[in-house]
Amino acid sequence: MIQDLALILIVAGIVTLIFKKLKQPIVLGYIVAGFLVSPHMPYIMSVVAKENIQEWADIGVMFLLFSLGLDFSFKKIVKMGMAPIIASMTIVLCMIMLGYTTGTIFGWKSIDCIFLGGMLAMSSTTIIYKAFDDLGLRQQRFASLVMSVLILEDILAIVMMVMLSAIASGNSPDSQDMMFSLLSIVFFLTLWFVIGIFAIPLFLRKTRKMMSAETLLIVSLGLCCLMAVVSTKAGFSSAFGAFVMGSILAETVEAEKIEKVTEPVKNLFGAIFFVSVGMLVDPNVLIEYALPILAIVMTILLGQVIFGTIGFFLSGQTLYTAMRCGFSMAQIGEFAFIIASLGMSMGVIANFLYPVVVAVSVITTFLTPYMIRGAEPAYKFIERKLPKSIILQINSLTTKHRGEKTDKKDVSITQKQLWHKLLKEMTINTAVYSILVIAIISVMFTFVLTFARSVLPLWWANGITGILTVLIAAPFLRAIVMKKNHSEEWKMLWQASALNRLPLISTIVARGAICMIFIFYICNYLTRFTNAIVICLGIIVITITILSRSIKQRSIHLERLFKQNLRSREVAAQVKGDELPTYADTLVERDLTLAEVIVPENSLWAGKTLADLQLGTNFGVHVSSILRNGRRQNIPYGIEQIFPGDKLQVIGSDEQITNLHKVMETAVYPEDDTDYEKREMILRQITIGSKSPILGKPLHASRLREDYALLVVGIEEGQQNLTSIDPNHVFQQGDIVWFVGERTSFEKFE
């Protein structure tokens, strides 16, 4: 095993250095290295134990997805809006169908066609990011659009892997199985994300002072492996669990540190994974399937260009931007290998499919920079061939789609929007809290009830378990019924029309009925009461839950804790000054701005207090915070001094902040135009004469610093001795005193 690992790492190191020199993606270097150490290359040493390599490769996939989860943020996805979702769904669905059709044309099995469609649907985030970086396009707007779609594609890839696993485990694809798999994914994601956001940030916050880099690495990888095991026990892949844990840790303050300390581990096992991919490349298979490889390459190039452009266009982009985005996504990469590995490990896809996909990935990767560059000439060609009126009409459609606003103030439309927002939030809250209640019931009935029945009589065990289950679930049951009942949308709808009141009350009744179902299930499982008694008992329990002050406080506390943990990374960034506080957006709505101004290094304001500067009186702005060396001083006092490099967060109008910035930039020390030679500091001895200005004066009263800018170093005693001078020493004629100062200072003194 050690021999194989040494061979892999040495060859991978040499090949990747060559690829680095050639400015090619390192991933391709790993694949080439894998091919060189495979049995298909008999001219050099080859790996002996393939089984060990495969185990390491599986670990590599797990850590790759863990790292992907660290880069993922549910909040970022929500903030993206619908545009990336429309684009990604269009591209993925169309490419899956195109890949399935391509495989069918060649007469491949149905399961091979399904997996091929999944492989072709996923563009490579790593390769595209590298290409944008090399071409200097990463900061352009279309590049950010592509990256947002790639993030969503990665999420869809995770979902697709789970669904493909479910499909592969059966005899044939079934719509019910697919729907059940999708619901299982949603349930698992919601449950563990909510529990994780409750527990993990709290744990890391309590242990923050004890977390060294080494400890943080161990804890992070431990949590990753734990969730991988849980995911496997739940019927999903270990990679899926690793992604979930990564996405949970991405919302913590320590996310950047975790990403930094785990990167070497990810890179090591990721390299082994891509090497294992290259080991499966068989030249004979590539020659035999040369025609399908070329066909699949053309399918990816044309499919991504066409459907990518359509997807981005439907999301509201102009034709030019949509084409640049579509051309950028014409390749497959790491997720294609991961999906292929999944199929190979499950033994459901043909052996030829893996090397075919690898060859396709290599070809499309090399073509990626040329495809990105080719988008603009292709657009110009279409622009020349199509009439200008059609181009303008197409672009106007997207402009209207993105930016058209209405000035109509129709009450019915407003109420419709309020109803839509209220019902959407109620549905999400009910679904999340219901999942938590289901999880609580499952855990209590699986573990606690079993233990209680082993040590207590049946009815005592059932009764205690039932009461504990209800008590633990009570805050969430209350949240199902009462959440959003006091929201602004609810109040506005209630006051807007009497016709809204009955539907609003019915939403409470409907959510109460859901809670009744949970209570009914608990009672029916643990007791032999009649339905009427169970219903009455459920009504009593729900009523007590709603009216109980302690349950209300516990529910509010849990909700606040969740929100606090979810926003911890964002809050930390605001405290450090990396992001503006959340109230900045509210100020904009009221024609005020929260801006940051930096005190120049040579500012005349340095050392002065806020009271001295009178920024409110002189400019009309207010200093809300001072950021200095990574520390934040909120609501500073008037006696607070400012220093060069300070970052001041000020509140005011755009005009006031502009005036402040202009004055601050001009209130600086003028540049010193004196000859630098004259400013040289020199050491000189001076014998005190009869006309010396300091004759007969003690050192402390001589004003040498104030009047002459000179520093007394010492007084000479003997030929070589130089001793420090006492502040009370009175200068006498003949004293040999050593001074430090500028030449001009000595000229003035003498």
If you had to describe this structure to a student in words, what would you say it looks like?
By secondary structure, this protein is of the alpha+beta class. The protein folds into 4 domains: 51-201 and 217-286 and 331-372, Na+/H+ antiporter like fold, CATH 1.20.1530.20; 411-547, no CATH class; 581-666, 2-Layer Sandwich (Alpha-Beta Plaits), CATH 3.30.70.1450; 677-749, Alpha-Beta Plaits, CATH 3.30.70.1450. The protein is 69% helix and 6% strand. The chain has helices spanning 2-21, 26-36, 50-71, 74-80, 83-105, 110-121, 125-135, 141-169, 175-206, 213-233, 238-249, 255-279, 283-288, 290-314, 319-328, 334-346, 353-385, 388-403, 411-455, 458-482, 488-496, 501-526, 531-547, 549-566, 568-576, 583-589, 610-613, 615-619, 654-666, 704-708, 743-749, and strands spanning 593-598, 622-628, 631-634, 647-652, 681-687, 711-717, 721-723, 736-742. A 4-stranded antiparallel beta sheet has the order 1-4-2-3. It has a 4-stranded antiparallel beta sheet with strand order 5-8-6-7. Strand 2 (622-628) and strand 3 (631-634) form a beta hairpin. Mean pLDDT is 82; it is low at 400-412.
Tags for this model:
single chain, 750 residues, alpha+beta, Na+/H+ antiporter like fold, Alpha-Beta Plaits, 4 domains, 6% strand
List the helices and strands and how they pair.
Layout (H helix, E strand, L loop, with lengths): L1 H20 L4 H11 L13 H22 L2 H7 L2 H23 L4 H12 L3 H11 L5 H29 L5 H32 L6 H21 L4 H12 L5 H25 L3 H6 L1 H25 L4 H10 L5 H13 L6 H33 L2 H16 L7 H45 L2 H25 L5 H9 L4 H26 L4 H17 L1 H18 L1 H9 L6 H7 L3 E6 L11 H4 L1 H5 L2 E7 L2 E4 L12 E6 L1 H13 L14 E7 L16 H5 L2 E7 L3 E3 L12 E7 H7 L1
Antiparallel strand pairs: 1-4, 2-3, 2-4, 5-8, 6-7, 6-8
Helix pairs in contact: 1-2, 2-12, 3-11, 3-12, 5-6, 5-8, 5-14, 6-8, 6-16, 7-8, 7-17, 8-9, 8-15, 8-16, 9-11, 9-19, 9-24, 10-11, 10-12, 14-15, 14-17, 15-17, 16-17, 19-20, 19-21, 19-22, 20-22, 20-23, 20-24, 22-23
